[in-house]
């Protein structure tokens, strides 16, 4: 394992590598949890039904967000001036349609989407779905329906109070922080490509193959060394997030680790591909930086993808950072590993394509 040990030593000897993978993400993680840019959502509610059920819906929203008084006249101004993140309109005959089992659609307005506002919308949709189930099970009997709803709310609110994450704001901060963890792991692109080019420049690449060391063993040890560095980085930053900032990593932090580790494989594959395309360490560093920052921006590491123009959202589907952030968002907002299988498979496909391209390029150079 000469190559493996050599890469680890080189990483530890150069402080810049440590800064790229660990210090920079850590600085932004601290800012994510100390800044005011991840605040509890402010929701405006316009009630055109004025019934007990619409009041109960408003009470449930108050457990998740700050409710602001809004009217039909001023809702646009409130949104434009950022007085509220979103406005929900409860239509007339809301209670009647609910008890009769007829389709109901609440109107909602927002200027720009965020993880907090989307989380509120998800909560309201789930709450309405539960009410529809209760209305069907009670056969439209108003008294039985309200008894079932009171029982549901009592249990629901108890669960909410005892939960380790009681606000969308904490999830918003967690997603901001995880975006910078992804960005830090993407720095492996620069580290891996630079190390390989240094081997070639110092003729170590040729000397290695005068020994019994095979090309396959060289590549495997290289990949393992970078993945080891990634694993240590992930575990360290996740420990800081959980123990230092009580980050809301969803029902399974192990699933979050798996997504981050899979993304690190993609980062390594891109680094190896870059090393097969360039001719010097300087070129490797320059090309890495041209890829890292734009991919991070397109993928939603610095801000939600939903606030970018539509054409950029379409382009973002072709960068791996997007799929890493989508998977993490699903997990943080309560989904399980089964819900991110497609995202993981797409990340693995990215890695496979980049590894194959790098292998083809190496073979072409050798011939």
Would you give an account of this structure?
- This is ABC transporter permease.
- The protein has 367 residues and is mainly α.
- The chain folds into two domains: 2-36 and 168-366, no CATH class; 42-162, abc type-2 transporter like fold.
- The protein is 71% helix and 5% strand.
- It has helices spanning 2-13, 15-34, 52-62, 75-80, 94-100, 115-137, 142-162, 168-186, 188-201, 204-208, 215-245, 253-277, 281-299, 310-316, 320-332, 341-366, and strands at residues 42-47, 66-69, 86-90, 107-109.
- A four-stranded mixed beta sheet has the order 2-1-3-4, with helices on one face.
- Helix 2 runs parallel beside helix 11.
- Mean pLDDT is 83; it is low at 158-166.
Write the layout of secondary structure elements.
Elements: H1 2-13, H2 15-34, E1 42-47, H3 52-62, E2 66-69, H4 75-80, E3 86-90, H5 94-100, E4 107-109, H6 115-137, H7 142-162, H8 168-186, H9 188-201, H10 204-208, H11 215-245, H12 253-277, H13 281-299, H14 310-316, H15 320-332, H16 341-366
Parallel strand pairs: 1-2, 1-3
Antiparallel strand pairs: 3-4
Helix pairs in contact: 1-11, 2-8, 2-11, 6-7, 6-8, 8-11, 8-12, 8-15, 9-12, 9-13, 11-12, 12-15, 12-16, 13-15, 15-16
């Amino acid at each position: 394992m000469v190559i493996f040990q050599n890469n680890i030593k080189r990483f530890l000897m150069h402080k810049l590598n440590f800064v790229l993978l660990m210090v920079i993400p850590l600085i932004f993680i601290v800012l994510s949890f100390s800044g005011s840019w991840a605040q509890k959502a402010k929701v405006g509610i316009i009630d055109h039904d004025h019934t007990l059920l619409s009041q109960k819906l408003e009470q449930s929203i108050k457990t998740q967000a700050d409710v602001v008084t809004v009217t039909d006249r001023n809702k646009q101004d409130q949104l434009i001036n950022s007085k509220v993140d979103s406005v929900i309109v409860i239509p007339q005959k809301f209670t009647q349609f609910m008890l009769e089992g007829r389709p109901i659609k609440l109107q909602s307005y927002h200027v720009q989407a965020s993880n907090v506002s989307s989380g509120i919308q998800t909560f309201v949709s789930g709450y309405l779905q539960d009410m529809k189930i209760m209305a069907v099970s009670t056969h439209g009997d108003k008294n039985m329906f309200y008894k079932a709803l009171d029982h549901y709310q009592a249990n629901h609110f108890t669960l909410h109070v005892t939960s380790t994450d009681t606000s969308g704001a904490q999830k918003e901060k967690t997603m901001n922080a995880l975006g910078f963890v992804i960005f830090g792991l993407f720095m492996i692109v620069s580290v891996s490509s630079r190390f390989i080019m240094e081997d070639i420049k110092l003729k170590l690449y040729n000397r290695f193959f005068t020994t019994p060391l095979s090309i396959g063993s060289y590549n495997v040890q290289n990949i393992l060394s970078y993945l080891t560095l990634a694993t240590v980085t992930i575990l360290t930053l996740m420990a800081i997030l959980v123990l230092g900032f009580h980050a809301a990593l969803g029902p399974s932090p192990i699933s979050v680790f798996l997504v981050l580790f899979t993304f690190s494989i993609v980062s390594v594959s891109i680094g190896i591909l870059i090393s097969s395309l360039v001719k010097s360490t300087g070129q490797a560093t320059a090309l890495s930086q041209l890829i890292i920052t734009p991919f991070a921006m397109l993928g939603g590491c610095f801000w939600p993808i939903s606030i970018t123009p539509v054409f950029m959202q379409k382009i973002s589907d072709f960068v791996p950072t997007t799929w890493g952030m989508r998977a993490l968002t699903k997990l943080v907002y309560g989904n399980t590993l089964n819900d991110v299988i497609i995202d993981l498979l797409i990340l693995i496909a990215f890695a496979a394509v980049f590894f194959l391209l790098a292998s083809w390029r190496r073979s072409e150079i050798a011939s």
